[in-house]
Input
Amino acid sequence: MSRVQANLLLLIAGAIWGAGFIAQSTAMETLGPIWFIGLRFAIATLVALPFALVEKKRAVAPVRSGDRMGFLFTGLALFLAAISQQVGLLTTSVTNSGFLTGLYVVFTPILTVFVLRKRPHWIIWPTAAMSTAGIFLLSGGAFSALTTGDLLTILCALLWSVQMISVGAFAGRSGRPMALSVVQFAVCALLGCTVAALLEPISLSAVKGALPEILYAGFFSSGLAFICQNVAQRYTTAPQAAIFLSSEALFAALFGVLLLGESISPAGYAGCAIIFVAMLATELVPELLKDKERAAAAA
Output
């Protein structure tokens, strides 16, 4: 596979995730947000299971008990992130949800200071300030205009950061990324269906009404897109992967305007641009400086 083809796969993954915000929003016209999460991840579990079984056959050692607990913790973080995002979509737009969720690109390295005790690259601090300014503009130029859904989505971004740090720790240590995927999806499915059964009504007609969105989110957003990412990143660089995958925010805004008739104010467009630049700078500046240091050392 060429680098161009790999980047195209990453762009497809970004488009799938961007369109996933539409599915998540429209599904709640007939189905409760927590039921949607439970059913979505039940399908995602089935999608990942065959890959996990193949991985198990090739594994040289069983998963350690400590890693199993890590898998469960990762699943809990994923569930809390998903429910924050899904419930947030009740009172925020697809466009805002897409961009605010993308703040995990900035939150993740900041969180490593407190969790892993590792000092992030200096670029993190200005990009965090840029992201805050972007949120200010995206909210309409006043923090009082931030909806409950916007705040829940920012919480979602923080929880995604916890989930990403957990994946980095336990998938690498165990050598079983597909087993981790199945466990975290299964945890989300079990918790989602259990909590939904206690809090939300359910009917066959409601499930049938949201079935296209459930299937899309379960099979494509939680299955195919991650497969595209895993395959493509073998043939391209991490900074390029970050650029193409972060396109999910742009696709979320595009699909929100085209399919749902949402609109963005000029200040909102400026805020989106600032957040997007902050995400790119977080990924690209450290790599560019490394290249300059290597060139200087070789001279």
